[in-house]
Amino acid sequence: MENRITSHEAQWHTSVWPLVISVGILFLGPLAFSFHFVYKNPFLTTLALGIGAPLILLSIAGWAKEGVEDVHRYSEGHGIWAMPVFILPEALLFVGFFAAYWYLRFTAPAWPPPGTPEIPHVIPLIMTIILISSSIAIHIAEKRLEEDNYPGFITWLAVTIALGVLFLCLKGYEWSELFHEGFSPSTNMFFTIFFSLTGFHGSHVLVGIGLFLCALIPAFWGKASKPFVTASSIYWHFVDVIWLFVVSQVYFL
Amino acid sequence: MSAHVKSGFKEWIFTTDHKRIGILYLVGSITAFCLSGIMAVLIRLELWSLGPTITDDPTTYNVWLYMHGAVMILGFQIPALTGWFANYLAPLQIGAKDVAFPRLNAFSLWLFWAGVVLALLTFVVPDPPDVMWTGYPPYSVVTSGNTALYSFTVLVMGFSSIAGGINLIATIIFMRAPGMAWGKLNMFIWTVLAAFTIQLIFVPVLGSAVTMVLFDKYLGATFFNPGMGGDVLIYQNLFWFYSHPAVYVILLPGIGMIFEIVATFSRNRIFNFKVAVYGGVGVLVLITGEVWVHHLYTSGLADWLRVFQMVTTLMISVPVGILMISLVGTLRGGAIDYKTPMLYGVGFIFVFLVGGLTGIPLAMASLDLAVHDTHFVVAHFHFVMAVSMTFAIMGGTYYLFPKMSGRMYSETLGRTGFWLFLIGVFVTFGTMFFVGLDGMPRRYYDYQMFPQLENLHKVQTIGTMIIGLAVITILISWIHGLVAGEKAPSNPWGSRSLEWDTTSPPGPGNFGGRSIVVPDDWDPYCYDKPGRTL
Ligand code: HEM
Ligand SMILES: [Cu+2]
To answer: Complex ipTM above 0.90?
Structure first.
């Protein structure tokens, strides 16, 4: 411990990844979106995606590498605590959408608005089961990691990721069916809300899968940051809970 | 700082040190301030005379006003207060070596800069955003301007400050030096904690609102399209549900900094400290989420809602009043030393009072119906927020200048800048109240219907030039201090608080290898006892 403190005072600490990932986000998010949707310029869109995506992937890898090598020791342990704090704003993001939904629903003359078809209930039920199982799977993975059982950890983490991917595939299938039948967000208010809420939730599933990949890859070299795994799994449970809200209020109510 | 510590370009741009990140926030936010200040000058030049003055295209005026409002708030005040001050000062005051998550800290810094870049794109893209800082639909959805830039600027800056908030809250909870109990914290720490709590709760709601605008405009959603059963009131409510609390995100660290300055330069304890923390800071956090409807008195909401939030709005002036009483009480019996930071501290009290007192009539729904969307409101919020918090930022930057740069600024230049600023503010915004009461509407690029107001408009534009001069003087004083200032001692102001108990500037790890342990009777404002170093 003494050693570490001295080493800390001897130099200014640096990391290139925060800067690189921010540049990546700038290109992949705002710039690619603007080029595509506002200026309708395929060349610039491709360029922005081509710059943004590699930068982000590169810096996630670099960041995760620093993390498992524990270069920046000050964060030790507090990560578990930061995730619940991050979930508070995340939850409120959904609160904004749900508030809009219920306001619109209560002020509508009829709900669902005329012209809304029956959305089949089988797929969302399967998706719910998948997501709940994945929460159990990541819980088992955590247990294995605590026992320092790396093969077990890798297996269960991979199961979680697979279930998440399956969830997204089903969602994609459901969406494409609807698109084929000619429904889109602009059809009516129900579809505006349907696509916004399920799409928004889906993007969170994607982030969760990304977090798990960051844990999976170093695990093959027998390295893992336990706080990071715990934090990602807390995030995953949260995404799960949000899905219960989405599925119950959008599909079944 | 020991000489052998390597510090080149790389140690700055890739830094994860909270002090350097704070300074990079300062650079970014002052850049944003200058740019959007130039927009303010353009706005005022346009209003100099009746009819088109420097542009005959109203959309151009809208773009300036968009730049001015959005960048002043998102790019200047919030990052300066929660990025620069909180990052630099909070870890030092609690005796920590750094923040809890140094790399996350650097991440929020660069996301903030990404937001600045997005705002700057306004100058180069075709069809720049022209939606004001509020981005109200339906205009923001139907305009040919690039609303996506607006939404993304809000989202990127918002995410940056959520990351910053998680970081500093974790830092304050877990990284306090041994012995630094909750009861021994500085006022500034409490205000930062409160500001970030508000930020974490309310920013995402704004995020959801601007995302809905994106969905509506670009992805075919119909949230705000009345023809499809949508309702723009959803946006207005969600927007102000965040943006009223946002003024407390700005106010709290600002007034926290003013408390530090006033206590140091009056050599006095903070008057009524506990009441100010619980009754002022605490109660503000509790009721800040129940007052947003005072921005929507004319939007056609139900009467019970308007009356309810009128009452809560009037109530919220109580905690703010408590904070003011503590500030003034701290001056009482103090040995006041009017150095530049203290001038800003006292100037803050005056400017803030003018803004606060003109806010009380605005809180009454019946009166606000008459002056809503006039320059009276613009004058009010410039006093209460724009100018008073700029005073806090300038004063705080002068206060920390010796610590962060290791050099002293010139008092003469500093004081000149302050007086020019104060005069310019009263000339500009004092006059603005009267123009507003006479009916001058907000966000109009011309005032053909009020030819009698032309002279008062000229006065305001002259006032703006004085403010411009003040800002130039301030910048010169900083640059002059950096290149030619005398070397600063570690505690030039004789403060008792922990951040001065280290070299100027502090090296990596903040306290030069010492592990800070805080004694039982520690008090950052113990001016009645001899001071000590830990
Ligand atoms: C430095 C001198 C400043 C001057 C001369 C100035 C001038 C003005 C004027 C004349 C307007 C109203 C224009 C109109 O409604 O047509 C305005 C709007 C505004 N100003 Fe300033 N301002 C200054 C500083 C600031 C600062 C420091 C802030 C920081 C928060 C700020 C925030 C705003 C906002 C939010 C608006 C409303 C924009 C909108 O209507 O969307 N201003 N300013
Ligand atoms: Cu308000």
So the answer is: yes
Fold of domain B16-500: Cytochrome C Oxidase; Chain A (1.20.210)
Query: Can you give the residue ranges of every domain in chain B?
Result: 16-500
The confidence score (pLDDT) of residue A1 equals: 31
A118-177 residues touching B, CB cutoff 8 A = none
How many interchain CB pairs under 8 A, A with B? 214
Q: Enumerate long-range contacts of B304-308, CB under 8 Å, 24 or more apart.
A: B306/B365, B307/B365
Q: How far is the CA of B116 from the centre of ligand 1 (A)?
A: 18
B33 CA: nearest ligand 1 atom: 27
Which atom belonging to ligand 1 lies closest to the Cα atom of B73? 30
Measured at the alpha carbon of residue A28, what is the angle toward residues A23 and A31, in degrees to the nearest 5?
90
pLDDT computed for residue A2 by the predictor: 35
How many alpha carbons lie under 13 Å from residue B489 in its C-beta half-sphere? 5
Q: Say whether A16 and B14 touch across the interface (CB within 8 A).
A: yes
pLDDT tens-place string over residues B54-89: 999 999 999 999 999 999 999 999 999 999 999 999
Verify whether the Cβ–Cβ distance A6 to B513 is below 8 Å: yes
The pTM for the full model equals 0.94
Label each residue of chain A as H, E or C.
CHHHHHHHHHCCCECCHHHHHHHHHHHHHHHHHHHHHHCCCHHHHHHHHHHHHHHHHHHHHHHHHHHHHCCCHHHCCCHHHHHHHHHHHHHHHHHHHHHHHHHHHHHCCCCCCCCCCCCCCHHHHHHHHHHHHHHHHHHHHHHHHHCCCHHHHHHHHHHHHHHHHHHHHHHHHHHHHHHHCCCCCCCCHHHHHHHHHHHHHHHHHHHHHHHHHHHHHHHHCCCCCHHHHHHHHHHHHHHHHHHHHHHHHHHHC
B contacts of A29 (beta carbons < 8 Å): 152, 155-156
